[in-house]
Amino acid sequence: MTVISIFSGTCCGEDTVVAGLVSDTGYELVRNADIVAEASALSGISTQKIGRALSAKTSVFNKFTHEKERSVAYIKLALAQILSKEELVIEGFASHLIPKKITHVLRICLMADMPFRIQTAIQERSLDEIDAVKLIRKGDEDAAAWVHDLLEVGDPWDASLYDMLLPTDKLNQSEIIARIREAMQNEAVQATPRSKRAVADFHLSAQVEISLIKEGHNVGVESKDGAVTLTVNKHVLMLSRLEQELIHIADQVPGVKSTKVRVGKDFYQADIYRKHDFEMPSKVLLVDDEREFVETLSERLLMRDMGSAVAYDGESALELIERDEPEVMILDLRMPGIDGIEVLRRVKQTNPDIEVIILTGHGSEADRETCMQLGAFAYLQKPVDIEKLSQTIKSANEKISQRHSTQTRHPSRK
Predict the structure, then answer these.
(1) Residue 275: predicted pLDDT
(2) Residue 375 per-residue DSSP state
(3) Neighbouring C-alpha atoms within 13 Å toward the C-beta of 15
(4) Most CB atoms closer than 10 Å: which of 1, 162, 292, 300?
(5) Could you tell me the residue ranges of all domains in the chain?
């Protein structure tokens, strides 16, 4: 049986069309939220964090943590498991993860012109015109970023990505469903033994990718009948050693018959391949208005395999925390605008799990007492020995890891 995948622009009347199609075909509806929930169950990662992988803005820490890649890998695994069934309507961003080799998928895009979308947003979501436009543009930004990152295509509505592109502002629901039903009869989208093997290949690729990511590796993965190909897209100084490690990990996955490693098109660019070390802090936020000092500090931490982002004032730090959730923060006290003590107070009110290390050259004993009472992890004076600071960050990271471990074993505990 044919599987139907649907991708649409925000406020294109997609909900009505999908509901009608599901009613007409009797197919099971699988939405983004369903796949994210399944990926969360498989990974132990929260649905909120998994869902962030589908947004336009990638965390500033992602180049160190690979959280987006890890989330997408689990979304692939969830999707591959879902595709083992037939008679499905798969709606949303995850539909773009279905490999082209799975030919029994009818890929549909629903789109409409902007006036229609604005009017739909106003009627269905009770928005004014300004907020409707903002909502639609945000949705389009997310769609464009997702498709570009995944498929290297600039336009998320590009006809080459789909079997059918249907305008919901020009066709009514019955006409759209009739066209889809007609296309479903085409032999090209019928399930075949070859297409079903492609689903199995997709499932194995996802399993291998997750095994590699768990060991800190981020490479491309393809499989065909148990033969796995890994693609390294960043320059490696000792490629043969990396090859051996990647092959060893992949060969442990049940179903893998052989593994080979190749270099990809970006291998010869300047960026260097870095294996992620899960034991090292990689979501450190440095907050200090002394730009030269804080940028140098960031570089020195990177040399010790600690990934960090930088904010130059308290307000920017609070905005970044709301968006990207760092785990450890190095915070100066004396800054223009919102000072360090107020930042600490707000962070501990809204994000108490962030461990805050005060690093200041102007603090007093009274400041130290205030900061520790507010929940600071440590209070250090400038100038600080980099090894002492590094060890303090590691200690904070260990505390976080222990807390996560306890929460995993005892989910009811706060």
Answers:
(1) 62
(2) T
(3) 7
(4) 162
(5) 3-189, 215-263, 284-409
- SS3 labels along 276-340: CCCCCCCCEEEECCCHHHHHHHHHHHHCCCCCEEEECCHHHHHHHHHHHCCCEEEECCCCCCCCH
Note the pLDDT tens digit of each residue in 335-378: 989 999 999 999 999 999 999 999 998 888 999 999 999 999 99
Structure tokens at 223: 């499989």
- Cα–Cα distance between 355 and 283 in angstroms, integer? 11
Residue linked to tokens 């595709």: 83
| CATH architecture assigned to 3-189 | 3-Layer(aba) Sandwich (3.40)
CA distance 387 to 20: 63
Over residues 191-200, the pLDDT tens digits come to: 999 999 999 9
The secondary structure of the chain in percent helix, strand, coil, rounded to multiples of 5, reads 50, 15, 35
Q: Which of residues 253 and 404 earns the better pLDDT score? A: 253
Q: How many CA atoms lie less than 13 Å away from 230 in the CB half-sphere?
A: 29
Among candidate residues 104, 80, 110, the one with its CA nearest the CA of residue 92? 110
Query: Looking at domain 284-409, does it have CATH number 2.60.120.260?
Result: no
End-to-end CA distance of the chain: 46
